[in-house]
Amino acid sequence: MKTRSSIHLFEFEVLSSLSIGIYLVTIQNRALMCCQYCMRSIQIQ
Question: Which domain of life does this protein belong to (predicted)?
Answer without folding.
Answer: Eukaryota
